[in-house]
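queue> pop job 88
queue> type: inverse folding (structure -> sequence)
queue> payload:
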């Protein structure tokens, strides 16, 4: 009798094991994903908390950046001040010694003039003296031209107030010379198309 009861009990256990529902694979995967997502979110929150700086730390960073910008500004101002002083000194030197090259070029002409004066004092030959003066004059004109200084054309040209200064007028010998320069009292010069001295002229009327 007991044996029959034991057999029936074992049979019921076997049926419960057989009839026990299997775990859904998809449900298991979803549960696992939810678990992993929760872990990732927790890790991100921990990282954000770790990288987040306090107001005091942010204030220190801003003060350091401000100090750096202040130093760079001071260096820049010092460089600009040195540049300003240097350019001012160069300008003063240029104004003071700007004509040095021109003066050095004139000195040989002065030497020639002094030699001509000595020759005149010693009673030299007039023809030789005249030739020497002509050479000095030619040399001086050549020097002026090398420095872009050229005489202004005047006699026979139309009167032009940009280049000529009328000292007087004179009746023109013929109609063609009216309004033209018939004589040059003092020659004018220009430097690179800029008038250094106006030519003083007599204008036909």
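queue> result:
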């Amino acid at each position: 009798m007991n044996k029959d009861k034991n057999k029936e009990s074992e049979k019921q256990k076997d049926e419960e094991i057989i009839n026990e529902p299997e775990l859904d694979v998809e449900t298991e995967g979803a549960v696992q994903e939810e678990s992993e997502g929760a872990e990732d979110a927790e890790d991100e929150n921990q990282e954000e908390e770790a990288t987040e700086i306090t107001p005091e730390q942010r204030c220190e960073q801003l003060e350091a950046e401000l100090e750096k910008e202040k130093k760079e500004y001071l260096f820049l101002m010092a460089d600009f001040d040195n540049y300003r002083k240097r350019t001012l000194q160069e300008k003063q030197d240029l104004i003071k010694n700007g004509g040095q090259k021109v003066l050095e070029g004139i000195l040989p002409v002065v030497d020639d003039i002094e030699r001509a004066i000595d020759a005149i004092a010693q009673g030299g030959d007039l023809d030789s003296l005249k030739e020497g003066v002509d050479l000095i004059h030619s040399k001086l004109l050549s020097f002026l031209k090398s420095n872009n200084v050229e005489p202004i054309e005047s006699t026979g040209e139309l009167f032009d107030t940009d280049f000529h200064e009328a000292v007087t007028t004179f009746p023109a010998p013929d109609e063609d010379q009216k309004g033209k320069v018939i004589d040059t009292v003092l020659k004018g010069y220009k430097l690179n198309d800029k008038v250094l001295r106006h030519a003083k002229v007599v204008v036909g009327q």
